[in-house]
Amino acid sequence: PDSASAGAAAERLAGLAVPAGALGRLGELGVWLSGVQGQCPPRPLDDVRLVIFAGDHGVAGHGVSAYPPAITAAMVRTFVAGRAGVNALAAAHDVRVRVLDVGVDDDLEGLPAEVSADKVRRGSGAIHLEDALSAEETQQALAVGRRVAEREIAEGAQLLLSGDMGIGNTTPAAALVAAGLGLGAADAALVAGRGTGVDDAGLDRKTAVLAEALARVGERATDPVETLTALGSADLAATVGYLLAATQAGVPVLLDGLMSVACALTAERIAPGTAAWCTAGHRSPEPAQSLALAHLGLEPLLDLGMRLGEGSGAVTAVPVLRSAVSLLRDVALLSELMPEAPTGPAGA
Amino acid sequence: PDSASAGAAAERLAGLAVPAGALGRLGELGVWLSGVQGQCPPRPLDDVRLVIFAGDHGVAGHGVSAYPPAITAAMVRTFVAGRAGVNALAAAHDVRVRVLDVGVDDDLEGLPAEVSADKVRRGSGAIHLEDALSAEETQQALAVGRRVAEREIAEGAQLLLSGDMGIGNTTPAAALVAAGLGLGAADAALVAGRGTGVDDAGLDRKTAVLAEALARVGERATDPVETLTALGSADLAATVGYLLAATQAGVPVLLDGLMSVACALTAERIAPGTAAWCTAGHRSPEPAQSLALAHLGLEPLLDLGMRLGEGSGAVTAVPVLRSAVSLLRDVALLSELMPEAPTGPAGA
């Protein structure tokens, strides 16, 4: 971010015809947007885009989710049909949605070819038993994510959001967070949440899977790319690539729930400074999201109890960013309302 | 609210192609909107209107505010010019703004006549020393508020917001909350907040003024209309009338900060059941707002640290309501995605 633009925005904020500090988070957000855009006041966010990275997860066959793996493909079809939760929200808030099958365990016949054009593999390894990906697949997925971000930016994206779809995905995402925070098998319960709604027995299984996975991987988790190979998945690695490319191009990112934030944490490990280009849309009930956000120094804008995934929390937060832009752009300066007596040659 | 429509909405929510409970507050809001609209799914909120009730307060001359009373008139001019904080937010979120001078201590020369056409008086009495209004003025202000709500509704308002402007107004608003909760002079510190930003000495003066006012009024505060006369102001009484007329006409209300919520509490005392037509937009740092919200059983949608007033918190929350509407209207039902084998005469 550009500290001169952020500084100019902070100065402009202080000069607005509002009591000092009265805009709260909206004032801070406006300053952040000026910094990431390199412009004060910030530009309106007219072109906002969400990419949903879809993939399946080997752990879903091991009782960690409330839903069967076949739901992943069904939901990709629902996104393409424009009928999922995030489609409704995106239509309401003028956000473009792209869904990308990076690792769905289904051929998705009949869908537009572009949906699966960048597919890395079908499914990912069950992380407590084997690596999620090969090292080559991790690089391929990172590159897929980078390319899609670059394409969206080339088409005019001013703000990028990341979304997820994949039954079982909160398990590898929690593992990425554990790895990112240096937590081991003994700490698995700290990062395990109920996802789409597993019961107590499901949560116990999930915690055990996470503990086994972290124990299996051991010191390899100290390397972020190796973490993606061992504990991640194709969709999560692609999301990391997407976040890296967006922030390296200077395009701000609005994060969503656990998957999005776990990938931001991983991206920050790969390229320190990434988080400065990110803001957090919505607090997830998943404990790992809160741990990762705290580590990144991010505080979500919304806390509406949503746990839908799909990028829905980020899309719901887009109008908050637009509020911040409008305040810094359109509110009168105190100096306009109460000009001092004119001085200098132009004065009367 | 219509329990049949709310029930139908709850059933629809349960049938959406999302995990149970995954929409959090947005799901609950959609059900509430169906109930208040008497329609499932709820209608889009295309016509949303904010009325800002402006007035001055005798207590502002007694050191309870960080700003001088002349700011009230200056801000009314800023609203009319479309350059205040809430104007920027309203433009961003397609909310119409009307500002009404009910009790500004200024003739507001040069502004359109309609701004002050319903003026009740200039200023209001300093509530620790005298009544804010006469009984007749209270009735007049209530009627002004009712009329403006009826006018907005006749013009098509689907959702009404209330906003405030008036230096010193958090003092009478806190007094309304104290009265509504049965708190007396000894509890003044519980409802006193820093408003636009008074220092410790200012907060002490404000607490003392509140204690004196509550002690002066005594048992009269058990009657809600008498409370407005003794402890309120023209703008607050008008806001109460506005909320009563809106909710009695079955038009839902999105509440703002302390002034809005203090008036909703007073309206609930006058007409029990009013709060069922209201939802809360934003949590204020003012302690009296939280006390009143808890009493009304309302939980704000947003908590962004704003303390601007003007209706700004409510306007910022409008997109959250629109999110809720879009989800209940536009997300596929599970039964559409996974239809059972057709049966009956139309089946193949």
* Amount of beta strand of chain A: 5-15%
- What value does the average pLDDT of chain A take? 95
The first-to-last residue Cα distance of chain A is 42 Å
| Low-pLDDT runs of chain A | 341-348
Structural notes for this entry:
The structure is a homodimer of 348-residue chains. By secondary structure, chain A is α/β, with parallel strands linked by helices. Chain A has helices at 3-15, 24-37, 70-81, 85-92, 113-116, 135-154, 170-180, 188-191, 200-217, 224-231, 234-248, 258-270, 287-296, 312-330, 334-337, and strands at residues 48-55, 95-103, 159-165, 253-255, 278-280. The first copy, chain A, has a five-stranded parallel beta sheet, sandwiched between helices. In chain A, strand 4 (253-255), helix 12 and strand 5 form a beta-alpha-beta unit. In chain A, helix 11 (234-248) crosses helix 12. Chain A is globular. Residues 341-348 of chain A have low confidence and may be disordered. Chains A and B meet through helix 2, helix 3, helix 4 and helix 14 of A and helix 2, helix 3, helix 4 and helix 14 of B. Chains A, B: Belongs to the CobT family. Chains A, B: This is Nicotinate-nucleotide--dimethylbenzimidazole phosphoribosyltransferase. Chains A, B: GO terms for molecular function: nicotinate-nucleotide-dimethylbenzimidazole phosphoribosyltransferase activity; pyridoxal phosphate binding.
